[in-house]
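S1.2 Input.
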Amino acid sequence: MAELLVGYARCSTEEQDLTAQRDALARLGVATERIYVDHGLTGTNRNRPGLREAMAACRAGDTLIVTKLDRLARSVRDAHDIADDLASREIKLNIGGSVHDPTDPMGKLLFNVLAMIAEFETDLIRSRTREGMKIAKAKGRLRGKQPKLSPKQEAHLYKLHIAGEHTMYELAELFSVGRSTVYRAIERAKLKSTKEDGA
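S1.3 Output.
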């Protein structure tokens, strides 16, 4: 039976596009119907239906193809599990044109080194993001989500609610906000009046 080339592509967010990965897989010889994808799933998410399907489509002697290792795994442990699965089923792995045979000791070593680099890059990105958020917070640029209504509007909304002449839906329409915003505004106003009464 002829060797099959099975492709896998993944992107972390719904906004990202898989076209570049699909094109690269096609250039590596993967037929369109043999490309499996996960859209909007991070590499750290172990529950990836597209990856499960791609792995299931591979048989002994076949090659699983990804454009980059971080599309397949984002941690050494994850990469190790995938490599063990591929090795036990005698499936080769092609990363951007470079073929690794997980049954071969050198192939396994290279695969693990690449996985360590991918995990290191992920940790660096996380670290930089946290650092950036700390700096922004210290400079007062990161204040979290701001309420949709001003304190004055919330006080007015609360008065109307207490009067009991409007439904929650009507209040939401009146202030051009969602009902969840109305509920939150009322809760905040209730807390405020309770504190003032207790003061």
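S1.4 Remarks. The mean pLDDT is 82.
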